[in-house]
């Protein structure tokens, strides 16, 4: 199967290269850039031993004539127009950006950008692999979930769907490493400002809030607005979403753990940790894992759920390849069965 990547020089793009390079079924057919026609290793010297291919301009006719699937690792605002043209060509497309995840009004409100063609947005299937497998199997266009929503929704899904918590009480305290902001230069993610620091950003206006609420609403019609606060961590990769909610009645941790085990049984990448064990971001680094630990506090009646992922893998390129596997009828873990790197 032939895969093309647009936005290859970004962090999502280079992670797609790493994963697809060792994938047994997908070949990297072509790699595309708006800014370079150099060999990719000049942008990323660690690829010199394995990749001599040159970056190519984005010619959608040529790409769609040869590729079976196109990954858009492009910024929000750029993806929807590319997806629209590729959909005319009857090709499978997986978009890593936020362009296709929300309805147009919500997108314009939260992203402060013009939305793409509503009919294309409507066709996009939300690629939360563990929850939407049936729709993904038959999809032509995938809106790959955001990094924070992936960690948060995998963590909250079982209790929200089962109606175990007061839907007006959900609070998510989320933290990301700096690679989540992409490769471009920004003062807040520069070494001197991010290192040995911890800061809140986009207070109550983060663009992933409506994406999370949209999926919670699908699971539970009593969904109310959530409190969601993002922090920039001085690490390269990793997201931790710490989710709090008020339980509707008295539940013991072990019963809720059983629910999580049942929900994610047969799902190779979601790991529910034993009672009194809580995940750390390094335990999923460079893997497609989402590790979850939780505790029901008998004193407050609240549950705390900790969910960690690697933002570039399960939060972006890894989940995108997992979705491609599902779309092409392969096992979802094909080419993704690598363990985390540690330390
Ligand atoms: N970083 C992360 O952890 C995650 C990122 N995402 C999303 O994935 C996408 C890629 O993110 P990331 O790789 O981090 O971002 P980067 O900024 O690192 O890379 C994006 C790449 O897109 C290309 N690009 C820029 N403008 C345009 C344009 N107008 N048309 C086509 N291509 C363009 C650039 O490559 P070139 O100059 O070669 O064209 C650039 O290198 C984004 O939408 C992001 O929001 C989603 C989940 C997690
Ligand atoms: C650390 C950091 O800055 N992370 C970015 C993640 C952005 C992203 O992934 O953008 P989409 O909206 O296209 O999903 C942020 O919080 O905005």
From TrEMBL:
Q: Which residues form the Semialdehyde dehydrogenase NAD-binding domain?
A: 2-139
Domain of life of the native organism: Bacteria
Which EC class is this protein assigned? oxidoreductase
Location of this chain's protein in the cell: Cytoplasm
Active-site residues, record numbering mapped to chain: 147
Q: Name one GO molecular function term.
A: N-acetyl-gamma-glutamyl-phosphate reductase activity
Q: Which CDD domains match?
A: AGPR_1_C, AGPR_1_N
**Mainly resides where?**
cytoplasm
Q: In which pathway does it act?
A: Amino-acid biosynthesis; L-arginine biosynthesis; N(2)-acetyl-L-ornithine from L-glutamate: step 3/4
Q: Which residues form a coiled coil?
A: none
- Give the record's keywords alphabetically: Amino-acid biosynthesis, Arginine biosynthesis, Cytoplasm, NADP, Oxidoreductase
Q: Which reaction does it catalyse?
A: N-acetyl-L-glutamate 5-semialdehyde + phosphate + NADP(+) = N-acetyl-L-glutamyl 5-phosphate + NADPH + H(+)
Report the EC code(s) recorded for this entry.
1.2.1.38
Q: Which InterPro entries match?
A: AGPR (IPR050085), AGPR_AS (IPR023013), AGPR_dimerisation_dom (IPR058924), AGPR_type-1 (IPR000706), NAD(P)-bd_dom_sf (IPR036291), Semialdehyde_DH_NAD-bd (IPR000534)
Pfam families to which the protein is assigned, alphabetical? Semialdhyde_dh, Semialdhyde_dhC_1
What is known about what this protein does?
A: Catalyzes the NADPH-dependent reduction of N-acetyl-5-glutamyl phosphate to yield N-acetyl-L-glutamate 5-semialdehyde.
**Family under the similarity heading:** Belongs to the NAGSA dehydrogenase family. Type 1 subfamily.
- Would you tell me the protein name for this molecule? N-acetyl-gamma-glutamyl-phosphate reductase
The organism of origin for this protein:
Cytobacillus gottheilii
């Amino acid at each position: 199967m032939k895969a093309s990547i647009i936005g290859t020089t970004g962090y999502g793009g280079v992670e797609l290269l790493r994963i697809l390079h060792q994938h047994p079924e997908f070949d990297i057919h072509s790699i595309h850039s708006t800014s370079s026609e150099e060999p990719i290793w000049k942008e990323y010297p660690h690829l010199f031993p394995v990749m001599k291919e040159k970056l190519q301009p984005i010619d959608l006719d040529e790409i769609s004539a040869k590729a079976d699937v196109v990954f858009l690792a492009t910024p929000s605002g750029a993806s929807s127009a590319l997806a629209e043209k590729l959909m005319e060509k009857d090709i499978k497309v997986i978009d890593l950006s936020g362009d296709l995840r929300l309805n147009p009004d919500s997108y314009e409100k939260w992203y402060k950008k013009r939305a793409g063609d509503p009919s294309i947005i409507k066709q996009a299937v939300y690629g939360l692999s563990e929850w939407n497998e049936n729709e993904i199997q038959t999809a032509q266009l995938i809106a790959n979930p955001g990094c924070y929503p992936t960690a948060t929704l995998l963590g909250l899904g079982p209790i929200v769907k089962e109606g175990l918590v007061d839907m007006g009480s959900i609070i998510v305290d989320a933290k990301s490493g700096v690679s989540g902001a992409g490769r471009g230069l920004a003062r807040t993610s520069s070494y001197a400002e991010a290192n040995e620091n911890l800061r809140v950003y986009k207070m109550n206006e983060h663009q992933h809030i409506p994406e999370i609420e949209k999926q919670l609403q699908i699971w539970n019609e009593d969904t109310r607005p959530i409190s969601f606060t993002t922090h920039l961590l001085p690490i390269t990769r990793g997201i931790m979403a710490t989710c709090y909610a008020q339980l509707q009645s008295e539940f013991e941790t072990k019963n809720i753990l059983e629910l999580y085990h049942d929900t994610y049984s047969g799902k190779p990448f979601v790991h529910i940790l034993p009672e009194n064990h809580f995940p750390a971001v390094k335990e999923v680094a460079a893997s497609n894992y989402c590790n979850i630990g939780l505790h029901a506090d008998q004193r407050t009646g609240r549950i705390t759920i900790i969910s960690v992922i690697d933002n570039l893998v399960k939060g972006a390129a890894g989940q995108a390849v997992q979705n491609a596997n599902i779309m092409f009828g392969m096992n979802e873990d094909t080419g993704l069965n690598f363990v985390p790197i540690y330390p």
